[in-house]
């Protein structure tokens, strides 16, 4: 009958993973705020009185960096969301269980990629 018992990480392990995730989430949130302020505060750098060619060049580069910042911010938002979902899985005690194989994800993998929902085995099956 032991097969019916769902394998999961202990509460102590879950608490350790939660600490790692909360730390990463705080840093990710700060990074996200920096990125967002970078593309929202695209203040004028005082080029109004300079030559039109320079201004056009700078606007092109500004647009490119704004797009790059927007892309980075979108990626960062997804990372923060994934980390929040990982915390929910910890609270549900389903954290660290591969959603494909149902086996525990290697703890070393979870320390590096704390929002992982697939074991390496399952990830390799996707290739």
TrEMBL record:
Q: Gene3D superfamilies, from UniProt?
A: DksA, coiled-coil domain
The dksA C4-type zinc-finger regions cover: 98-122
Q: Which UniProt keywords apply?
A: Metal-binding, Zinc, Zinc-finger
What's the domain of life for this entry?
Answer: Bacteria
- Family annotation (Pfam families): zf-dskA_traR (PF01258)
Bias (Polar residues): 39-53
- Give the molecular function GO annotations: zinc ion binding
What InterPro entries does this protein map onto? Answer: Znf_DskA_TraR (IPR000962)
In this chain the Zinc finger DksA/TraR C4-type domain maps to: 94-123
- The UniProt annotation puts the region (Disordered) at 39-67
How is this protein named in the record?
Answer: Transcriptional regulator, TraR/DksA family
């Amino acid at each position: 009958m032991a097969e019916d018992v769902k394998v999961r990480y202990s509460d102590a392990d879950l608490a350790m993973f939660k600490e790692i995730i909360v730390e990463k989430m705080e840093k990710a949130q700060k990074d996200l705020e920096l990125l967002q302020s970078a593309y929202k505060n695209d203040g004028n750098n005082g080029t109004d009185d300079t030559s039109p060619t320079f201004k056009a060049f700078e606007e092109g580069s500004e647009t490119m960096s704004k797009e790059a910042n927007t892309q980075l911010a979108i990626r960062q938002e997804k990372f923060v969301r994934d980390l929040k979902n990982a915390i929910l899985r910890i609270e549900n005690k389903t954290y660290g269980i591969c959603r494909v194989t149902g086996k525990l994800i290697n703890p070393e993998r979870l320390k590096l990629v704390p929002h992982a929902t697939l074991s390496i085995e399952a990830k390799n099956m996707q290739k």
